[in-house]
Design goal:
By secondary structure, the chain is mainly alpha-helical. It has one domain. Helix content is 76%, strand content 0%. It contains five helices and no strands. Helix 3 packs across helix 5. The longest helix is centred in the last third of the chain and has 27 residues. The chain is elongated, with a radius of gyration of 16 Å.
Length: 141
């Protein structure tokens, strides 16, 4: 991995952290509260959440996105967004199908669909940010 990929990973991670706050912390928070099965102690209270760990988690996804986009040659905002959306869609669909098969977490299948769509949008925007950084200073053909 070169410096540009690491910078793209950092930018994607920061974008993911901020966008995640908007998507899950504000826009969909009420929807998830209404459509998830609640278990005592499963979710931490807002003041108990570890934002530093959440940021590191987003940086890890940023590394995956930046590395994948670099290896695929997706070095524009649009191409990296599409590549990341495709990867993210199938990854998060797999995760949510796994949850549906083994856990009593979602109260209905609609919330699973919303979850996959939200994650797909989230990772597509992260990919777009990484692609923009990866393409900076690139020579035009």
């Amino acid at each position: 991995m070169n410096t540009r990929v690491l910078i793209a990973a950092l930018v994607a991670g920061v974008v993911g952290f901020l966008l995640g706050w908007v998507i899950w912390g504000m826009a969909l928070m009420g929807y998830y509260e209404a459509n998830m099965i609640h278990y005592e102690g499963l979710m931490k209270a807002e003041g108990e959440m570890n934002l530093a760990l959440m940021f590191v988690s987003n940086l890890c996804v940023g590394v995956v996105v930046a590395y994948a986009c670099d290896r695929m040659g997706a070095k524009t905002l649009a191409s990296a967004a599409v590549a990341s959306a495709i990867i993210g869609f199938f990854f998060y669909l797999s995760i949510d199908l796994s949850f549906m098969s083994m856990m009593n977490m979602f109260s209905n299948t609609t919330v699973m669909v919303v979850d996959v769509i939200a994650y797909t949008v989230w990772i597509a925007v992260m990919g777009a940010a990484a692609g923009a950084v990866l393409g900076m200073g690139a020579k035009k053909a």
